[in-house]
């Protein structure tokens, strides 16, 4: 249970660090410059680009030792796994929708 709670707390921490004026309704936003991060501005208000998503997913797979040969691992995989973990952690539906930036249950 502690591990599941930590996952939820990590998402909540991320949400407190991202800009409140994000352009659009994107969960992942671009990372700011080191200088601005040192001033407490961690993220930009623009979405994280596809290339950055792909690089991030590849790095996560490599660093965690996952065998992703002949598999399609995408940012959507990460999003759906994240939502699954929220469900398993007992997070309310409203919170899940807030975290995932879904406007409807579908």
From TrEMBL:
Keyword Disulfide bond: no
Keyword Magnesium: no
Listed GO MF terms: DNA binding
Entry's Gene Ontology BP terms: DNA integration; DNA recombination
Keywords on record: DNA recombination
Recorded superkingdom: Eukaryota
Protein name stated in the entry: Tyr recombinase domain-containing protein
């Amino acid at each position: 249970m502690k591990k599941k709670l930590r996952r939820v707390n990590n998402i909540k921490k991320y949400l407190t660090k991202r800009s409140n004026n994000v352009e659009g309704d994107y969960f992942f936003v671009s990372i700011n410059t080191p200088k601005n991060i040192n001033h407490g501005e961690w993220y930009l208000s623009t979405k994280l680009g596809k290339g950055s998503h792909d690089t991030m997913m590849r790095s996560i797979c490599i660093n965690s030792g996952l065998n992703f040969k002949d598999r399609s691992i995408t940012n959507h995989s990460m999003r759906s796994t994240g939502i699954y973990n929220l469900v398993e952690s007992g997070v309310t539906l409203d919170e899940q929708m807030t975290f995932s930036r879904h406007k409807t249950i579908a």
